[in-house]
Amino acid sequence: MRIPLFFALPALVFPLLLAALFASVSTSLAETAEQKITEETTGVAVVELFTSQGCSSCPPADQLLTALSSLNTEHQMPVYCLSFHVDYWNSLGWSDPYSSKQSSKRQHRYATVLETNRTYTPQMIVNGAEEFVGSNAERAKAALKSALSKQATATINLRTHSQSDEPQLTVEFAVTGDEEQEILNIALVQAAAQNEVPQGENSGKTLSHVNVVRGFQTLDLDTQQGKAFFALPVNTGSSEYLIIAYVQNRDTGQITGANSTAVDLQ
């Protein structure tokens, strides 16, 4: 776990997961979660990972997020994972190509809302309410089990479209449920990303990520329907993109509904 010096506070020491343990926990998590959705799941789980390619503690958390993401892609569960790359480690030898100041600001906002008074990487936050070290698979498993057992109170319908002659993606949304004190977050995410890191703490490694946030907007829910617009990524190549949207209480951070849809890049 890495904590910026200006936010440093006494912290517990968290052991890194061994490869064999990680594999067994990931398998167990998938099996347990799949069983839960057929029995009593009524909620959604939004998993936000704050990470950085300049952080040597982050690759295990990136791997865990990949395992959690498979609950959606392979098991069709309402688990929505997002990888927010922060920029405050960029001065330590390697500038994370996926990082943004917006991601760092979002994490700082959580530090205020959750009253942790610190930011660090890797940090995982489930449904805007429970935070823990992002490589802690047991905490993730428990948090997802809790989130999925709670009734979602908002539903979101999404549709995307773009024109080949316009570098813009249009996202149409319709939200139903209790909109009081609620906001709608809409993220444009790159489904998979991989690159070599030649410098910094992860020098010589090839790092892989899922659902990397490439665009993010927060809208007041003063209307149940609307549109959001995103600039299309440059040189998308064979990369796949998704829109992940989730309703969140602006005061408590609690997430009450979520959905995703594939992006049709004409």
- Whole-number total of structural domains: 1
Per CATH, the superfamily is Immunoglobulins
In the predicted model, the low-confidence regions spanning at least 5 consecutive residues are: 5-25
Residues in β-strands, percent:
35-45%
Please give the oligomerization state of what you see. Answer: single chain
State the major sheet.
Answer: 4 strands, mixed
Q: Judging from the principal axes of the Cα atoms, what is the shape? A: globular
Named CATH topology? Immunoglobulin-like
Keywords: Signal
InterPro entries: DUF1223, Thioredoxin-like_sf
Organism: Bythopirellula polymerisocia
Protein name: DUF1223 domain-containing protein
Defining traits:
alpha+beta; globular; four-stranded mixed β-sheet; 23% helix; four-stranded antiparallel β-sheet; single chain; 266 residues; 36% strand
Task: Tell me about this structure.
Keywords: Signal. It holds the Pfam family DUF1223. This is DUF1223 domain-containing protein. Residues 1-30 form the signal peptide. It is a single chain. With 266 residues, this protein is of the alpha+beta class. It has a single domain (15-262), classed as Immunoglobulins (Immunoglobulin-like), CATH 2.60.40. The protein contains 4 helices and 11 strands. It has helices spanning 19-39, 59-73, 101-113, 137-148; strands at residues 45-51, 79-85, 123-126, 130-133, 154-162, 168-177, 182-197, 205-220, 225-231, 241-249, 255-262. The strands form 3 sheets. It has a 4-stranded mixed β-sheet. Strands 8-7-10-11 form a 4-stranded antiparallel β-sheet, with helices on one face. Strands 5-6-9 form a 3-stranded antiparallel β-sheet, with no helix packed on it. Helix 1 (19-39) runs parallel beside helix 2 and helix 1 runs parallel beside helix 4 (137-148). The longest helix is centred in the N-terminal third of the chain and has 21 residues, at 19-39. The termini are far apart. The model is unreliable at 5-25 (pLDDT under 50).
